[in-house]
Amino acid sequence: MGERKQNRSISGCLNLSAQSLPLLHSADPEPECHTLTSRQISNLSILTLATLTASLGISLFPPFYPQVAESKGATASVYGFILGTNCLTTFIVTPIIGRNLNNVGPKFIFVAGMFSNGVCCFLAGFLDKMPAGVCFIGYSIAIRILHAVGNAGVICASFTYVAVDFNHCIAKVFSFTRLMMNIGQLIGPALGGAFFQMGGYVLPFVVLGSIQCVVALLSTLVLENYIAPRPKDDKDVSNQISIIGMMRIPGMWISFGAFLVSTLANGFISITLEPQILRQFGMDAFYMGLVFGIKDGANSLFSIVWGYLCDRKSFVKPCLIISSVTVCVSLALLGPLPYVPIERTLSLTLVALILIGIGVGGQQLGGVIDALHETIDGGYSDDAATHGCVAGMWSSIGGLGRFVARSGCGVMVDNIGFRWSSVVIMAFHAALALATFIFLAIKRNRCKLPTLYKSIPHSFSTAALYHSSEFHRSRTVSILA
Fold first, then answer.
1. 72 part of a folded domain
2. pLDDT tens figures, 76-92
3. Domains held by the chain: number
4. DSSP state, 315?
5. CA end-to-end span of the chain, whole Å?
6. What does the pLDDT average to over 216-233?
7. Average pLDDT of the segment spanning 7-24
8. 199, 228, 257: which is the final residue of a domain?
9. How deeply is 476 buried, as exposed, middle or buried, from its count of CB atoms within 10 A (0-12, 13-18, 19+)?
């Protein structure tokens, strides 16, 4: 008994627990997906359709709303804040919905969220009929807030269904739903532009809002009403994931930074592209929507490359550096950079949008994968709870970034102009690339310790150190000191 206590005290003194040692082994191979059952196929169909239609509805606002807002007398600062209110709402309500998902039930939250999305999208089609002033602004903010609450519920509930129904291939199914989101953002502006030419401002919002309501009705018939599983022992919370615990992991701040700056870039482009760049080219609604979708198209297509590169754990953070530098180059071309003799042309704008789509895609994918690696390496279990918490933080911080971009960028453009505003956004991405590089350099120096440990002769191994008189004398002196 005394020997066991001595061994435990020695282990505690040296802090040589399994979780504190560096993870030197390679990651386990990803489990293969089983053959999908009919229930899984039906659930996946609903999740895919919901993600696609929700993304289509959300993508209608950036290309068409600023022109209507300006016709009602709203400045860039005002309609930038209005567009950003849904992002601030997402940042606030996503953790709340995630914590109460098991109490309310994922099916109710999913159906209610889809129905709320459809109704808000439908009502947004009548914004041009509202009187200018406080009435228009209040009506717009209310729609954006309710739309954000519904979308946050759909995101949280969808991830729960993915974690429960596809527990052997969560990453693959999640990446597939992300692809559907990007496809919606790609074709949404062009599809909205086509509807706009056929029936004016009201038609695209009414059509896509009605489709989302139909999807909500179908989900009530297809999805099962089960509750997400709880831990077997509620008293054992030593290894349960939490937001505070994630924030204590140093490497997670690189991931948080990637979440934030990628959404800053996206929000900056969505609020400034049409009034500051595309409007001078005199494009009609269809081609304007097509140009808006180029960035998301490049994001979708190049995600396969980022996924292949990030499949190697050691290359995830280098991918963040490469993608951040790519965004810096794209913003320098899109501005163009002040005091640089570059003429802004439509072809140069298209190249810049493709580059920013590629870079933002790498930051988003690499950030999520890096967050999962850092959380698991920090001692948390590789299970659905950890995945859900990481996805919630990704959605919440992404909402914060979009709010800051859409509300703050309008103020920046009004005060310092578009060029210098793009320099400010570019500085955030440069800071992320530099911070990631420094983190990798520090981590590489720390990883030299296991190499030195392997070179120690057997007589000086840890087991020999435990039983040496010199060790116990030094330990006694350190305790008395």
1. yes
2. 778 877 877 877 788 78
3. 2
4. G
5. 27
6. 71
7. 35
8. 228
9. exposed
Query: Phi/psi zone of residue 284: left (φ > 0), alpha (ψ -120 to 50 degrees), beta?
Result: beta
- Is the pTM value of this prediction over 0.70? no
**Burial of residue 399, with CB atoms counted within 10 A of its CB: 0-12 exposed, 13-18 middle, 19 or more buried:** buried
Greater confidence (215 vs 228) lies with 215
- Mean pLDDT computed over 408-433: 87
Residues 287 and 213 grouped into a single domain = no
What tens digit of pLDDT does each residue of 144-154 get? 899 989 988 88
Domain that holds residue 137: 39-228
Nearest to 364 by CA among 400, 391, 403: 391
**Of 193, 228, 263, the domain-final residue:** 228
Residue at 235 is within a domain: no
Query: Residue 34 has which token pair?
Result: 């089983």
Query: pLDDT tier at 329 (50, 70, 90 boundaries)?
Result: very high
Contact 159, 94 (CB under 8 A): no
HEC profile of 223-274: CCCCCCCCCCCCCCCCCCCCHHHHHCCCCHHHHHHHHHHHHHHHHHHHHHHH
Judgement on whether residues 224 and 249 belong to the same structural domain of the protein: no
Q: Is 459 helix (H, G, I), strand (E, B) or coil?
A: helix
Q: Answer yes or no: is 103 within a domain.
A: yes
Question: How far apart, in whole angstroms, are the C-alpha atoms of residue 71 and residue 302?
Answer: 37
